[in-house]
Design a protein that fits this description.
The chain is α/β, with parallel strands linked by helices. Helices cover about 45% and strands about 15% of the residues. It folds into two domains: about 1-35, no CATH class; about 40-215, Carbonic anhydrase (Beta-carbonic Anhydrase, Chain A). It has helices at about 10-25, 25-35, 55, 85-95, 110-120, 125-130, 135-140, 145-150, 155-175, 175-185, and strands spanning about 40-45, 65-70, 100-110, 190-195, 200-205, 210-215. Helix 8 (about 145-150) crosses helix 9. Pfam families: Pro_CA.
């Protein structure tokens, strides 16, 4: 017995609309992508949040971005322990196989994962401290960021922690030997952004995250 059900009708209708318009008008391009493989220039690591739509923000076409999404756009430290690491595998493939030129970490405002990390680290979310919490153990990656912002005024801590989620990820990326080597030979550049959902603004990390400039 299985639990797989047909797609909801509204999604089927949207698919048929896409196939009859966007695909039909660009079918040669899709065939080329299928036959020649992907050659994206950039990898994007962004949050699973449904409000973050990086392809729309940058007007990206199919084949342009290699995208990995996870809770709070976090990258764990390099840990070759023989276990299963989805984010690390995506980074390895992008840098080693696809040879992307840019790796962009995109955070965002009002991030539920970041808010959960703040609550957990400040002692207000004991359920996330449970060993059985997948979210809590994933957000442990951001604990060093919390330590950096905990002395700020309470009203500023969440915004600062959203930026730390980006900077911690970039710092952890540099613990991967193949990332560090590619950065040092200038074959790869790392970039940190935070998307303000309400204002539509992109903030870019500069000077190692000490300054954030609106693009």
């Amino acid at each position: 017995m299985h639990n797989v059900r047909p797609l909801p009708q509204y999604l089927i209708s949207r698919y048929h609309g896409w196939k009859a318009t966007a695909y039909a008008e660009n079918s040669a391009w899709y065939r080329r992508l299928a036959d020649d493989g992907q050659r994206p220039r950039a990898m994007v690591i962004s949050c699973c949040d449904s409000r973050v739509h990086v392809t729309s923000i940058f007007g990206a076409d199919s084949g342009e971005f290699f995208i990995h999404r996870n809770i709070a756009n976090l990258v764990p430290p390099h840990a070759p322990d023989g276990q299963q690491h989805g984010t690390s595998a995506a980074v390895e493939y992008a840098v080693e196989a696809l040879r992307v030129a840019h790796l962009i970490v995109v955070g965002h405002t009002n991030c539920g994962g970041v808010a959960g990390c703040h609550a957990m680290c400040s002692g207000n979310a004991p359920e996330l401290e449970e060993k059985s919490s997948f979210v809590g153990r994933w957000m442990d990656i951001l604990r060093p960021g919390y330590e950096r912002v905990r002395e700020l005024p309470e009203g500023e801590q969440i915004r600062a922690l959203e930026r730390e989620a980006v900077m911690i990820s970039i710092e952890n990326l540099m613990t991967f030997p193949f990332v560090k080597a590619a950065v040092e030979t200038e074959e790869l550049s790392l970039h940190g952004l935070v998307h303000d959902i309400r204002e539509g603004t992109l903030w870019q990390a500069e000077d190692g995250g000490k300054r954030w400039m609106a693009l």
